[in-house]
């Protein structure tokens, strides 16, 4: 199976190990991973900031870069959610609206692809420690993913997963929301961290590095011992 990977901007620039670990897992389960070096952005940042035409230009490039792909997999529910839910709106009545709709149907978040497409829940991973899982808004509300990452984590040898209170509450990042409404964003992150600390775990795991980046900043500011890990980092731990 040929799988094209899409690496989000912030993962590429700040957390490249997440992309490398996703590749390790995909290859472990038998996928032939393809990386198109011409890829850039999915267009979401510009769209959320109100620059819709500029976003459309970036989205057009994404469609061109991945038009021939059978499967597109990314370690980000945020990017995938945007492609699935907003490309049809961005390209409504456009000449390439058919291509825009089609691209969303073959784009998958990492855990979604493993569990729902490949029907794989156990990748033979091991990770010693206690962790809690954070449901990102994009994964939960835009990609409708809840059990997929938990199924994968439940098969990780040595990992004890403990659910936190108000697990579905937003972490406060929200892209530009964290910049425009900084005090509210910080308060939401601190509340999420407080719930995580109540479980007495060592790690917070999520599908979205954007959420984890935001939480990590507050954890460092508060001198907390909690660490953040992307799902791919856990699943690739012993590969």
Keywords:
51% helix; single chain; 4-stranded parallel beta sheet; 14% strand; alpha/beta; globular; 2 domains; Rossmann fold; 8 strands; 239 residues
Summarize the structure.
With 239 residues, the chain is α/β, with parallel strands linked by helices. The chain has helices at residues 9-14, 16-28, 44-48, 52-66, 77-90, 97-105, 110-117, 137-142, 147-154, 177-180, 182-198, 209-221, 231-235, and strands at 2-5, 32-34, 72-74, 107-109, 126-133, 157-161, 203-206, 227-230. Strand 7 (203-206), helix 12 (209-221) and strand 8 (227-230) form a beta-alpha-beta unit.
Characterise this structure:
With 239 residues, the chain is α/β, with parallel strands linked by helices. It has two domains: 2-116, no CATH class; 120-235, Rossmann fold (3-Layer(aba) Sandwich), CATH 3.40.50.1860. Helix content is 51%, strand content 14%. It has 13 helices and eight strands. It has helices at residues 9-14, 16-28, 44-48, 52-66, 77-90, 97-105, 110-117, 137-142, 147-154, 177-180, 182-198, 209-221, 231-235, and strands spanning 2-5, 32-34, 72-74, 107-109, 126-133, 157-161, 203-206, 227-230. The strands form two sheets. It has a four-stranded parallel beta sheet with strand order 2-1-3-4, sandwiched between helices. Helix 7 (110-117) packs across helix 9. The longest helix has 17 residues, at 182-198. It starts with a strand and ends with a helix. The model has no long low-confidence stretch (mean pLDDT 95).
């Amino acid at each position: 199976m040929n799988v094209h990977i899409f690496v989000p901007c912030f993962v590429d620039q700040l957390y490249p190990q997440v992309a490398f670990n996703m590749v390790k897992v995909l290859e472990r389960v038998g996928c032939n991973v393809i990386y198109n070096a011409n890829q850039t952005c999915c267009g979401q940042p510009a769209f959320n900031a109100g620059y819709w035409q500029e976003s459309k230009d970036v989205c057009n490039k994404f469609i061109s870069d991945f038009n021939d792909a059978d499967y597109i997999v990314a370690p980000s529910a945020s990017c995938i959610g945007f492609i699935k839910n907003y490309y049809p709106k961005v390209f409504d009545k456009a000449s390439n609206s058919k291509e825009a709709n089609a691209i969303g149907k073959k784009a998958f978040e990492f855990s979604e692809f493993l569990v729902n497409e490949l029907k794989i829940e156990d990748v033979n991973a091991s990770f010693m420690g206690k962790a809690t899982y954070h449901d990102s808004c994009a994964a939960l509300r835009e990609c409708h993913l809840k059990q997929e990452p938990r199924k994968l984590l439940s098969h990780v040898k040595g990992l004890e997963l403990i659910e936190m209170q108000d697990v579905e509450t937003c972490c406060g990042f929200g892209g530009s929301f964290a910049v425009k409404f900084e005090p509210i964003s910080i308060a939401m992150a601190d509340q999420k961290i407080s719930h995580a600390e109540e479980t007495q775990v060592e790690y917070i795991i999520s599908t979205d590095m954007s959420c984890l980046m935001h939480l990590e900043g507050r954890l460092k500011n508060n001198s907390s011992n909690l660490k953040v890990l992307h799902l791919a980092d856990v699943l690739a731990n012993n590969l």
